[in-house]
């Protein structure tokens, strides 16, 4: 089935909002995230504006490292309520352009605009539509975004990524190969460091090279995910735009090299897990109600404890406090060494 899909992603979302809110920071490197505490801070970068990225600062980088890379940057704590509000306003605007709109995170959405196929020049129509969308967002929120348009989600997303910031790229089916061929394999969604390492060992570095190997070869190498990699390398992606996507929970866990009861070590690891989970929560654009902490003991017995908040929250402090209280219950209630700890958020809702 022929489709036209549009992908929109806001440019350095949190940082751009902060730049808008604080005109005195305009042109300066801005880092939104944990408090750097003069280089001693724990926690990570949520995002950085393009000025700060020139120093090598990016999302998920430890904030202490960001401070070392650019001590003169403006470091700001996230103001989630504001970002949520802006996000809602943006996607209100975006969803005016098609009833088939899938919001995938606080700053990112796919739109099925296949209705344009019924017109004579669908990609010209798509260009007009995308320009109008960028204009509307600029007028309403004074923010820039990048938009990619293509025959499927994969191509649309890669196109948007390619023209950041403030870009618009339309990729007709006949131009898909041209877009994909020069890309490094890691630029395909889902091809992480480990997959890339194994591909490089086979002398496969670019998507062009990846597209020249057989399906059987990739399936033998990666199992079932090998089929997806094969399809992606060909620019194929059958996923539809889901207006109702279901993510039931977001979680992360860690298995210690050696079982431990050391409070400092447990807490440090636990804090990292909380930050990771929080990062995903924010990225996916959810609020949570239930926090579950999981502990596996040296004998492999696994226990969970949960707390459900009265109202949905996306507040880091609330998450941290709830999760740590639960962990403490494990530590005081049991003295076996711990093998694994984890945190899971559920009862997720959209703001
Ligand atoms: P992204 O769209 O991944 O990044 P971005 O908008 O900051 O930058 P880009 O121009 O490259 O799109 O994520 C959107 C927001 O989600 C980002 O502004 C902050 C938040 N976020 C985190 O808090 N932690 C993370 O690890 C990531 C990736 C994003
Ligand atoms: Mg973005």
Structure description:
- It is a single chain.
- This protein is α+β, with helices and mostly antiparallel strands and 351 residues long.
- The chain has 13 helices and 12 strands.
- The strands form 3 sheets. The chain has a 5-stranded mixed β-sheet. It has a 4-stranded antiparallel β-sheet with strand order 9-12-10-11, with helices on one face.
- A hairpin with a 2-residue loop joins strand 5 and strand 6.
- Helix 4 packs antiparallel against helix 5.
- The two termini are 33 Å apart.
- Magnesium ion (MG) binds next to strand 1.
Name the bound molecules: thymidine-5'-triphosphate, magnesium ion
- Give the DSSP E fraction (strand runs of 2 or more residues): 15-25%
Order of strands across the main sheet: 5-6-1-7-8
Counted up, domains total 4
Low-confidence stretches: none
Radius of gyration: 22 Å
CATH class of the largest domain: Alpha Beta
> Helicity range of the residues?
25-40%
Number of strands: 12
Name of the CATH architecture of the largest domain:
2-Layer Sandwich
CATH homology group of the largest domain: Reverse transcriptase/Diguanylate cyclase domain
Offer a concise description of the structure.
This protein is α+β, with helices and mostly antiparallel strands and 351 residues long. It has 13 helices and 12 strands.
